Amino acid sequence: ENKMNTLLICFVFISFYGTSLSLPRFEKGNGLGIVNGNDTTILKHPYLGSLSVDGTVYCAASILKKNWIVTNAFCFRHVTPSEMTLRVGSDRWNSGGQAVKLSKVFYPSEYQNDFDYNVALVKTSKPIKFNKKVKPISLAKKEPEDGAEVTVAGWGTTEQGTLGKLKDATVNIVNRDSCKNDYHHPYPTLTERIQCAYKYKVGPCWKDEGAPLVYKNTLVGYFLGENYCAALEVPQLYSSVANLRSWIIETMKKN
Prior knowledge:
This is Peptidase S1 domain-containing protein. It comes from Clastoptera arizonana (Arizona spittle bug). Belongs to the peptidase S1 family. The protein has about 260 residues and is of the alpha+beta class. About 15% of the residues lie in helices and about 30% in strands. It has two domains: about 45-135 and about 245-255, Trypsin-like serine proteases (Thrombin, subunit H); about 135-240, Thrombin, subunit H. Strands 1, 8, 9, 10, 11, 12, 13 and 14 form an eight-stranded mixed beta sheet that branches. Strand 12 and strand 13 (about 220) form a beta hairpin. The model is unreliable at about 1-30 (pLDDT under 50).
């Protein structure tokens, strides 16, 4: 009965949003964001930045250094870095704080336009100025343990359909093998570079791609998103920063 209910929910969601579970897709101005989250401020998440294109919030990102941010590689499927604006230090994605243009994006050579090796390391066109509302975040050296409570934040549209208010939510890390059992179709393959987190009908969705997943003040992942969002009653997919950390550090050093 539970499986039938889950299938019915998925069918209704797919019918309503016109998307497919079998293929990832990113569309401008589409979908939901932090669902059933809490109002928050940038002071609580000073490492967080928004990425916008043509006056629409597109993705979230995390500040690593004065010239570097990290986000979901899907964010650059249809746009170039020069078309995006990074905004940091503001509770709003479209005003206040610092607006910074982007210059170049780097991907792992193994990245094949899917969830595995999904990391976009982006260099800004000018240095980000740090202050109490703008701070870098450290990269996690290991994954949180199963069941750990982690925090995700972003500006995506809420369950009420409103857009622009910064929200956060706490979710729990899900055992990778258990998560694999929740995805009965062959896509995606959950490698060590992908981890799962879940709380019933709580978490990010479209427009929150790249939203940072934080544990004990370190970046443990970011939302991989696409078709897997809080409206579906399955764990959500995040990158595993601990297993991408070496590539991120090496790439920043070389560039």
